[in-house]
Amino acid sequence: MGEGEAQKHPVRPSANPPIRAITFFLVSWLLLLWPLLVNGVPFYSSDSASYLRGGEFGFNTGILMIDQWWRLLFAASAPPAVVEGPNTIVAHAIAESGGTRSLVYSVSTYLLRAPGTSLLLLAIAQAGTVAFSLTMLRSLIAPRSAMAPSIMVAAAVALLTPAAWYAAYVVPDILAGVAIASAVTLTVTFDRIGPAQRLVLVMVTAFCITVHGSHLPIAFATLAAGGAVNLWLQRPSIAAGVRRALWFLSPIAIAVLTLLGTSYFAFGELSLAPKRYPIQLARSVADGPGAWHLRDHCATERYAICEIYGTNPPRRVGDFLWAEGGVRFRATPAQMDRIRAEESLIVGRAAMEYPGHQIRRSVTNTFEQLIVFGPGDLPFGFELVDGEDPTIVSTTPDRPALRSIGKLLIYFGFVGAVLAIFALRRKLQPIEIAALTVVSVGLLANAAVCGILSGVTDRYQGRVAWVLPALVFLILLRLWNLRKPVTSSA
Length: 490
What we know:
- This protein is mostly helical.
- The protein has helices at 3-8, 17-31, 34-39, 46-74, 86-97, 103-111, 120-141, 147-160, 163-167, 174-188, 195-210, 215-234, 238-267, 279-287, 289-301, 304-309, 317-321, 327-330, 333-353, 355-370, 400-423, 430-453, 458-462, 467-481; strands spanning 382-385, 391-394.
- The protein has a two-stranded antiparallel sheet.
- Strand 1 (382-385) and strand 2 form a beta hairpin.
């Protein structure tokens, strides 16, 4: 319809835009819950129980710390308690576990563990964050779209992307995708949103960064790319550009301050990853250079890891870290501290000794991770058994056929979205091209971070692979709204 026709026949919105947005959010949220309805419970991994145990311990220890501070401030004359202090309790717990995971996500897991310790509320909340991201993108790409085709887009995201699968997986993985989507909305479409929306996006992105160590570099890459694209498209004045840059950097700043604050509060040290597991060292050993370096230098360098394994450490990441013979169980607390301190040194020296092999392995791992994102890591039929020490047990048969169908649909949706980009490239708006570019940067950053520093597995890329097709589906929704109406004679 031309501009003249549009003026003669103005389009009247069918509902108030906020009402449409709320309706779309709620319907999207419900559609994203289908894996929970099919499985009856969330998808679990051993990490799920670990987060729950750590969250309970962290919450109770935090209460104990607050109580101790209260006594010191207002009851200084009271006799000191003979029980162990919070710092001693924390030190003992870390010594028993060998390391810690995200404090923020652990406490969130404990608070959202209901009903019982099923973590069902946590999975529902994670689906809500995906629905929020989708709603924000829709309001900026296709804000005047009718509800029926909008719901079709939400259904496509729920069925043709890994979003619903990994929202139901009670580990922080899905929040990496939410961080990318929120960062794109904050930066690329900065001029289409108000201060309140910007503030919400900043807080959501910052929270997503704090829940896992890998999310910080991924979000930073996405925010940097999005900020650069925004400044290039809008060409603001120097003062306006500085203000925008502050908005774009604020999620990183808030997340870093939160991580440092919780680290100091819990462990008495300023660290972005306090008491971490030596995952980078395990990856270097698995790739080869780390193992070869230890073989050649254990006799002279006196590394802590050599005291445990000599010149023959386990060559698989899981065996190195968490198996019965892994450092989690074999290293003493003092040795674990030394391993953490020496990790970067060993990994750096190994990469410098075998640069060609390390580069090939890193590139290969990144490429493999980029194209592996099905639901293969999500078995049906497991439950988290309540008790003093929650454990995961198999209760019903797995459903590999359903998982295979889901994988086919996910790859069909992703490949179809990529083909649609090329087919419709001449109809894309500059801001849509920018958003697609920044999302691609986020997906590539995720593949590089996970492939190089951890390992190649479906869930690492599946947690973010839904953002690109979701954005393409919304672009198709906008183009659908621009179609010419079919006319007929009287």
